[in-house]
Specification:
This protein is of the alpha/beta class. The protein has helices at 17-27, 59-62, 81-97, 109-115, 128-135, 139-149, 151-159, 166-179, 209-225, 228-236, 253-258, 261-270, 276-299, 314-329; strands at 5-10, 36-40, 67-68, 101-105, 199-204, 305-306. Helix 5 (128-135) packs across helix 8 (166-179), helix 6 packs across helix 7 (151-159) and helix 6 runs parallel beside helix 8 (166-179). The chain is globular and about 55 Å long.
Length: 331
C-alpha cells in the first residue's frame, strides 16, 4: 500500500517558511492531487490570542489555503509535543482523505519530528510524588538540577529562552529521573524511513547568518509597530467578555514568561523589570539564539533538501515547486 505523501518546509525563524508553504499549496493542485492544506508546526501559534508576537498568519495571508493547528489551545494551558502528535495525526488523516497533500510548515523541530516518526516520545507516566516535590522549587534551582541530570536538554531549554517554564523543567527532570534521557535522545534510525507512516519531502530554508540577523531585526520592529506590546497588555487584562481572538483572558505574567521568547520579554517589560529599549535588545538576542538552535536541530536531518535560492525569489519558488512536483509524481 502506498504511503501518503507529505511535504515539510523547515528552517529557522524569519526565513520565509510561511509564504513558501502558501505558494506551494496554491501551485501543486493537479500534480497528482486535488490541492494542498497546511499544518502549522509552531509551539506557540497553537495558542489563541498569541498573534502579533508569534507572527501568526492572517486570513488574508493564507490566500484561501486551509490551515490546521492554529489557535487550538488557551495560553493558560500547557500544550505538549504529545498533544501536537495526536492533533497532527488527525489533521494528516483529514487532509489525505480529501486527496490533498499536507504541507507541514514550521520551526518547532521536535513537533515535526514527533509527528513524522523521526522521534519517539518517551513513555514516562506522571510521577505525582516527584512533581509535588519539584513544584516547590524555584525555576532557577530546577534548571541547575537539569543541567546536572541532562545537560543536552538543559542547553536546548536555555537556547529557547525557556528557563522560567516550570512545567517544562519539571517534565524534563521527571523523564531524566525515570530514563536518564530527554525526548531529544529518542531519535529513530532514519535509515528505516521506509517503515514510517508517510513518504516525506523535506524542503529546508537556510539563509546566511547576515540575512537571517537582518530579517529578525526587521521583523521584530514590524511586530512592535503592529502592536506586540498592546497585545500582551490585552492578554494580561482581566476577562470582561469573551472576545473571538482570545485577548482579555487574565493571563498571568508568570505564565506569559513560560511561553518564552517575545512573551517572556514582554512580561518582564510590563512588570517594570526592563525598559522598552532593554526589552528590544534582550528579545533580539534571544530570537537569534533560538534561530541558531533551530539550525542545529534541522542540520541533523540528512533527508532535508536545502533550497539553493531564497524562498521569496523567483528562483527559490521555481526550485521548490520543481522538487515538490517531482516528489508528487513519484510512484
Amino acid at each position: 500500500m502506498q504511503r501518503p505523501k507529505v511535504i515539510a518546509i523547515v528552517g529557522p525563524t524569519a526565513s520565509g517558511k510561511t509564504s513558501l508553504g502558501i505558494f506551494l499549496a496554491q501551485k501543486i493542485k493537479g500534480v497528482g492531487c486535488s490541492g494542498a492544506e497546511i499544518i502549522s508546526a509552531d509551539s506557540r501559534q497553537v495558542y489563541r490570542g498569541l498573534n502579533v508576537g508569534t507572527g501568526k498568519v492572517t486570513k488574508k495571508e493564507m490566500g484561501g489555503i486551509p490551515h490546521h493547528l492554529l489557535d487550538v489551545c488557551s495560553p493558560k494551558k500547557v500544550y505538549t509535543a504529545g498533544d501536537f502528535k495526536k492533533d497532527g495525526e488527525k489533521a494528516l488523516r483529514d487532509i489525505t482523505t480529501k486527496n490533498k497533500i499536507p504541507i507541514i510548515v514550521g520551526g518547532t523541530g521536535l513537533y515535526i519530528d514527533v509527528l513524522l516518526g523521526r522521534i519517539v516520545l518517551p513513555n514516562v507516566p506522571p510521577n505525582p510524588e516527584l512533581r509535588k516535590k519539584l513544584e516547590k522549587k524555584s525555576t532557577e534551582i530546577l534548571f541547575k538540577m537539569l543541567q546536572k541530570k541532562d545537560p543536552s536538554r538543559a542547553a536546548d531549554i536555555e537556547q529557547k529562552n525557556e528557563q522560567n517554564n516550570k512545567h517544562r523543567l519539571v517534565r524534563a527532570l521527571e523523564i531524566a529521573e525515570a530514563l536518564g534521557k530527554s525526548p531529544s535522545g529518542f531519535r529513530t534510525d532514519t535509515t528505516g524511513k521506509e517503515n514510517h507512516a508517510c513518504d516525506v519531502l523535506w524542503l529546508g530554508i537556510n539563509p546566511s547568518k547576515e540575512t537571517l540577523t537582518s530579517n529578525i531585526h526587521a521583523r521584530l520592529l514590524a511586530r512592535m509597530k503592529a502592536g506586540m506590546v498592546a497585545e500582551a497588555k490585552r492578554l494580561h487584562a482581566p476577562r470582561l467578555h469573551r472576545p473571538a481572538d482570545g485577548n482579555g483572558i487574565g493571563l498571568s505574567y508568570k505564565r506569559m514568561e513560560e511561553l518564552g521568547l517575545e512573551y517572556r520579554s514582554l512580561a518582564r517589560h510590563l512588570r517594570g523589570d526592563t525598559s522598552h529599549q532593554e526589552m528590544l535588545e534582550e528579545l533580539e538576542r534571544a530570537i537569534n539564539r533560538y534561530a541558531k538552535s533551530q539550525g542545529r536541530w534541522f542540520g541533523a536531518n540528512k533527508e532535508i533538501c536545502w533550497l539553493k535560492s531564497a524562498p521569496n525569489t523567483a528562483a527559490g519558488k521555481k526550485e521548490a515547486l520543481r522538487l515538490a512536483a517531482a516528489f508528487l509524481r513519484e510512484v
